[in-house]
Design brief:
- It is built from 3 helices and no strands.
- With about 80 residues, the chain is an all-alpha fold.
Length: about 80
Protein backbone atom coordinates (compact mmCIF):
# COMPACT_ATOMS: atom_id res chain seq x y z
CA UNK A 1 0.00 0.00 0.00
CA UNK A 2 1.54 3.34 -1.03
CA UNK A 3 1.24 6.64 0.84
CA UNK A 4 -1.52 7.98 -1.42
CA UNK A 5 -3.60 4.84 -0.91
CA UNK A 6 -3.14 5.13 2.85
CA UNK A 7 -4.13 8.81 2.81
CA UNK A 8 -7.21 8.01 0.71
CA UNK A 9 -8.20 5.34 3.21
CA UNK A 10 -7.76 7.87 6.04
CA UNK A 11 -10.01 10.28 4.16
CA UNK A 12 -12.67 7.61 3.55
CA UNK A 13 -12.62 6.46 7.18
CA UNK A 14 -12.78 10.03 8.45
CA UNK A 15 -15.79 10.71 6.22
CA UNK A 16 -17.54 7.59 7.51
CA UNK A 17 -16.72 8.53 11.11
CA UNK A 18 -18.12 12.03 10.59
CA UNK A 19 -21.30 10.65 8.98
CA UNK A 20 -21.88 8.28 11.88
CA UNK A 21 -21.40 11.03 14.43
CA UNK A 22 -23.52 13.61 12.58
CA UNK A 23 -26.37 11.20 11.85
CA UNK A 24 -26.84 10.60 15.57
CA UNK A 25 -25.92 13.99 16.98
CA UNK A 26 -27.54 14.30 20.39
CA UNK A 27 -28.68 10.67 20.36
CA UNK A 28 -27.08 7.50 21.61
CA UNK A 29 -25.50 5.25 19.01
CA UNK A 30 -26.65 1.66 18.72
CA UNK A 31 -24.28 -1.06 19.87
CA UNK A 32 -23.57 -1.91 16.22
CA UNK A 33 -22.75 1.70 15.33
CA UNK A 34 -20.60 2.13 18.42
CA UNK A 35 -18.67 -0.98 17.41
CA UNK A 36 -18.22 0.40 13.88
CA UNK A 37 -17.05 3.75 15.27
CA UNK A 38 -14.49 1.95 17.42
CA UNK A 39 -13.35 -0.12 14.41
CA UNK A 40 -12.91 3.07 12.39
CA UNK A 41 -10.80 4.61 15.16
CA UNK A 42 -8.57 1.52 15.24
CA UNK A 43 -8.21 1.48 11.44
CA UNK A 44 -7.29 5.17 11.48
CA UNK A 45 -4.64 4.54 14.13
CA UNK A 46 -3.25 1.69 12.03
CA UNK A 47 -3.16 3.88 8.91
CA UNK A 48 -1.35 6.73 10.67
CA UNK A 49 1.09 4.27 12.27
CA UNK A 50 1.85 2.73 8.87
CA UNK A 51 2.27 6.11 7.23
CA UNK A 52 4.70 7.29 9.95
CA UNK A 53 6.76 4.10 9.68
CA UNK A 54 6.84 4.31 5.86
CA UNK A 55 8.03 7.91 6.04
CA UNK A 56 10.70 7.01 8.60
CA UNK A 57 12.01 4.21 6.38
CA UNK A 58 12.07 6.54 3.39
CA UNK A 59 13.96 9.19 5.39
CA UNK A 60 16.46 6.53 6.46
CA UNK A 61 17.01 5.53 2.83
CA UNK A 62 15.16 2.23 3.24
CA UNK A 63 12.31 0.77 1.20
CA UNK A 64 8.98 1.98 2.65
CA UNK A 65 7.17 -0.87 0.89
CA UNK A 66 8.66 -3.30 3.39
CA UNK A 67 6.30 -1.90 6.04
CA UNK A 68 2.83 -3.34 6.55
CA UNK A 69 -0.14 -2.71 8.78
CA UNK A 70 0.53 -3.79 12.33
CA UNK A 71 -2.11 -5.63 14.38
CA UNK A 72 -4.50 -3.52 16.41
CA UNK A 73 -3.16 -4.92 19.70
CA UNK A 74 0.22 -3.36 18.92
CA UNK A 75 -1.03 -0.04 17.57
CA UNK A 76 -3.63 0.38 20.29
CA UNK A 77 -1.16 -0.67 22.98
CA UNK A 78 1.01 2.46 22.77
CA UNK A 79 1.57 4.30 26.01
CA UNK A 80 0.57 7.94 25.96
Amino acid sequence: MDDNTILQKVSDLTDEERELEEAHEGESLSTEKLARLHAIEVELDQCWDLLRRRRARRTAGLDPDEESVRPDVIVEGYEQ
